[in-house]
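Encode chain A's predicted structure.
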Amino acid sequence: MKTRIVNIAAFWLLGIISTFAQNALSIDNVSVVAGQTVALDVKLKNDVTVAGLGFTLTLPKGISLVVDDEGEPVYSLNEERAKGTKFSVFSVAKDNGTYGFRIMPTSTSVIQGTDGIILSLQLQVDAKTASGTYKGQLTENSLTVKEENNALRTEKLSNGSFSVNVTAQSQEVTTDNSIYVEDMEVVAGQTVALDVKLKNDVTVAGLGFTLTLPDGIILVVDGDGEPVYSLNEERAKSTKFSVISSANENGTYGFRIMPTSTSVIQGTDGIILSLQLQVDSKTISGTYKCQLTENSLTVKEDNNALRTEVLDDKIVNVIVTETSIINKYKLLYVVDGVEYKTYEIEYGAAIAPESVPTKEGYTFSGWSAIPATMPAHDVTVTGSFTINKYKVTYIVDSEEYYSIEVVYGADVNPIEEPSKEGYTF
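Encoded structure for chain A:
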């Protein structure tokens, strides 16, 4: 009998240990190329009702979390498990690669589901990081558990770790720094976006370049004669960078993008500045060469020192296609032999008939035939007014005595007064 009791107790205790072992915070191993970012998904496995959780994430040197402008880690909550409108995330970033996180409800909400991603972060690996397996740590893991009676308790979880498998940048990865514009096509008389791109494997605190355009091709400018531009908000927020530009009469434009604080350009490849290229409508079809010269970067070293790096010149091909000019023809409206209204309408365009004119005392005959679309010749549409006649009726003793039709505007001559024996009119 004692043996049976011990076995039952042991089985019961094993069940408790197994139950608690179901609750865990974890991160799967990830692989990433040095200089790039990768999603880091924090997962929660639970067999209890979870009203909140916390953990501390520690990353090795050269590996960090992507942060926003205020230095806070960029994250997204899994909407299926913890709706962003019902939970808030508190984070603390420390200098030693340690980040503290706390996910708390904004109401009486609880985490949905029992297994899966709860929070997604962005892991960023320094471009100079060597190939290897690096260990990250999940410590101080805990859950706020909601009991069936709505009481809350804190449950501490086991620490965990994960591997970050880093592959150093290979020779196939282009590391040359360059400012460039891809070839583009445009129809004469129209505008097209001219996207200046920056490819960099260094920390860029500023850049400059000169753009030279051939005859017939210019940049769209504002009322002050300054080129119209927009900074790529993902790479250089306009609140932290300023653009200095100059335009010369020979089709040369100088640009300088400078930080307004200690900000640096984000990312390693993509659009940094968008301009608007405008091609004269008389430009003939052909390939026109644009030049990017005097290209340079202001590079920020690891010790925060700044240096200037001169880059290679670049050629941009602008392929222009002539636009076909649609002829316009005259549409003339004539009323009673006099020109009434005139329009110039493109060939093939729909014609909306002119409203019928009015004239007191006259009736309009209507317009002559009007084509539905403008033909390849002038069109004259005619119409005329006909004077109206109106009836003059004489009533004597409430009865019609005499009537006559009189043309509008003509004199009305009174008739002779009627007479009746024994009566005075």
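Helices lie at 2-21.
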